Amino acid sequence: MTRSRSTGWTVATASLAVVALYAYGCGPAARSGGTIGATGDVASQVYVAPGSHDEFYAFLSGGFNGQLSVVGLPSGRTLKIIPVFSQHPENGYGYNEETKPMLETTFGFVPWDDLHHTSLSQTNGETDGRWLFVNGNNTPRVARVDLTHMETTEILQIPNSAGNHASPFITGNSEYVLAATRFSVPIPQADVPISSYKTNFKGTVSFIRADKPGQMDIAFQLLVPGFNYDLARAGKGPSEDWVFFTSYNTEEAFEKLEINASKNDKDYVAAVNWKVLEACVAKGTFRTMDAEYNHNVMDEFSREGKATVKRGVKVLEPSQCPGSLYYMPTPKSPHGADVDPTGEYIVAGGKLATVIPVHSFSRMMQAIKDKAFDGDAYGAPILKYEATIAGEVQDPGLGPLHTEFDGKGYAYTSIFISSEVVKWKLGTWEVVDRIPTYYSVGHLMIPGGDTKKPFGKYALAMNKITKDRFLPTGPELAHSAQLYDISGDRMKLLLDFPTIGEPHYASALPAALIKDKQKKFYSLAENTHPKVARSARESGVERKGKTVHVRMSAIRSSFSPDNIEGIQAGDTVLFHVTNIEQDWDVPHGFAIMGATNAELLVMPGETRTLKWIPKTAGVYPMYCTDFCSALHQEMQGYVRVGPSGSTVALSATTTRRAQQAARMAANQGNAAERMALNQLRSPLSAKADSQRVPTVDPHAAHRVAAPAVPKPR
Amino acid sequence: MTADAHGIRRQLYPVALPAHEKIMLRPAHRMLLAVSALLLIGTFLFPLWRISLVAPQYPEGLGMLITVNTVKGVEPHHLENINGLNHYIGMKRIVPDAIPELRIMPWALGALLLTGLGAAALGNRRIARLWTLLFFVGALAGLADFWWWQYDYGHNLDWENAPIKIPGMSYQPPLIGSKQLLNFTATSWPDPGGLAAFASLGLAVLVLVHDARNKAGSNGALLHSPENTQ
């Protein structure tokens, strides 16, 4: 007993020693072991009581899911998923007939993309809460999301582009959304050897007109040397005429980039003067290249997407427009090019660098004036590093990526390799605080942190690796975001939350800016969809050859029509479902057995169309998929499908048909009496009918085509 | 001329006053009576009555306003939405055009306003009393009619087709006050237009009561007459 007890003590002491040693030896790891978040009452800082609202809306890009998520801060609660470049079966985006055109490109229907970055519209360099712009990296596209209803309303394809990564970055009054190429390719595209990279491959910087909804367009493109353009920011205040892009692979490698694009000691920040370019274009210094690209717009009233193919784009080269492009040497494959709120400093995150170089805009202008050049790159002057540099942040950590600002004179840089956020002071370049991330932070976001007026209360780190941070879910784990309180001298980790997809970047704004502008429903009176049914009386069926149009109304808790007969196998049936509610938070869903696409989720006042091609005869149930009311389970119907060539007449039980049937039933008797009655009643009933059918409906005649006599059952 | 007329009146004063006081209201009362009639303008400018509905799933509330000539939603689609919800209990649709009282009411209130002004101008006590009585009876009839509509909508339900049928349950909202109707708390209360009408009637009654009291002590009235004290 004595011996075993002493053995126990020895083991216990030894274990403690080992634990202590381990903790001592692995300092940072031990710090991360669950103690983070336990300092002070951080829970109350992120606790948004039931029924209370978050302080900020954050829009997190979804990366490879092609979507956006709307997240409330500080709670980290996901409020909505906005599909942009990807189909979304949940609400039918990209599956229903109205939204399919949004995903059209000159490559065809592309129902997926890699959505990297977000950019909120600005007025005078400040967030104005009108729109959010996002990019599709893989099949170059830029989309507009309207912040009053948080839906994708416009998508513009970018011609002469590949890897639309340095996109979409916005100018101070939302004049342009910028989009530059990660991949240089032959422009125009051509079948050339890849080894002819240096002679044939080019990049482009596209200036997309953005301030008019529904009218996004490529204003012009600047043809640039075949480097990889990574990220960008527009200038502010004194630098507002300029935009700054980071570039890497100035080695112009085309194979094993990992090694071959990391050779140069310095790559470049490209400074582009868009006012100079505008002037050149106005003078006619451009050539129009024959390029095709899609412009897809969701109509505000019909809520139908329309895909248009545009032709031709204005292209100019820096050599044609002197003063439009300069290169500032910047260490080691820089990622972010971030302009501070004053517009004076351009911070470049050299992802393989050991310092964070900060360029000065005023010094850059002086260097241009002094012609402090160090040669040129394909005709664009390269400024001397010493001439533009304002300072270097020493020992920031390994792999600085991207910097945001708090508006109080501090910058916050995400450090990928050493997995931390570093806070440093603009002007003195000294690191004042650092805090770990879990793990491998990519971008960082401070609400308004890319504008003249940041809301420097929180910083959100978006992490690539989560490992042990949440309950494990098999090999595929969520990415995560971490919220830091940056209101004090020291950064404080408040919250970890898993994200949807891979947020490469996010934008946020104070909720008060847009909260009260949120639409509650679409106006049925303003619905201009050609197949709208504004009431059950306007519903009905119509055959045009092998196509059957069903105008269907949905209201708690019924569809009209709810029984349809006379469909034939092989018919294309288009269910145009209008949700005729004009009330808040009452969507109706629609699904039919065997449909090979998805459901419809129809918001109040809008019309959505599901295409269905039944292949075999039978009776198919359809139903409402969104639990709309106490009698949601009763919101259903049947479609009878006969074999091809069936003689069953097309008919549907709509409210109007039901009324007719009731009238006919009431008139059952001898034919003469019925005829007499009908004659007697016809003026009245004709009047009643004309009152019921709104005169605005140009398709009213179609319904008359359906047989007036209900067929025997 | 006025001075002359005044002078004449003054001359006649000791003789004419008792008779005048017997049948005519004093100027201040006539003025207040005119104010009472003018208050009825409020019934044209503001809704008369408001029925508000709040339920767990309608925290923002739904509401119905009864104005001088129609019934409408507090927000543009509220009436439609109330009708939509009412179909579950088999209640008739509230269709303003089908309520004849709403066509009569503007004329009735307009006539009341004008005759009120007329009565104030004439200053005849009997006419003023008659007007107030008419007003009072009209108001009572209006409220009774409103109650009857509420009763009718709340009780005459389409039991055949109502999806929600609760034996013994009726859905009559209160005339004034709050009542729980299934998941909804219905609150009925006069709106500024209705309050203006009540104020108008109240003022007319007060004026006449005050007048009657002063007349009762008619000696005093003479003594306190402004003309007399001058």
Report on this model:
Chain A is mainly beta. Chain A folds into 2 domains: 462 residues, YVTN repeat-like/Quinoprotein amine dehydrogenase (Methylamine Dehydrogenase, Chain H); 169 residues, Cupredoxins -  blue copper proteins (Immunoglobulin-like), CATH 2.60.40. Chain A has 11 helices and 46 strands. In chain A, the strands form 10 sheets. In chain A, strands 6, 7, 8, 9, 10, 11, 12, 13, 14, 18 and 19 form an 11-stranded mixed sheet that branches. Chain A has a 6-stranded mixed sheet with strand order 42-41-44-45-39-46, with no helix packed on it. In chain A, strands 36, 37, 38, 40 and 43 form a 5-stranded mixed sheet that branches. In chain A, strand 1 and strand 2 form a beta hairpin. Chain A starts with a helix and ends in a 9-residue tail after the last helix. The C terminus of chain A is likely disordered. With 230 residues, chain B is of the alpha+beta class. Chain B has one domain. Chain B is built from 9 helices and 5 strands; from the N terminus they run H-H-H-E-E-E-H-H-H-E-E-H-H-H. In chain B, strands 3-2-1-5-4 form a 5-stranded antiparallel sheet. In chain B, strand 4 and strand 5 form a beta hairpin. In chain B, helix 2 packs antiparallel against helix 7 and helix 5 packs antiparallel against helix 6. The N terminus and C terminus of chain B are likely disordered. Chains A and B meet through loops of A and helix 4 of B.
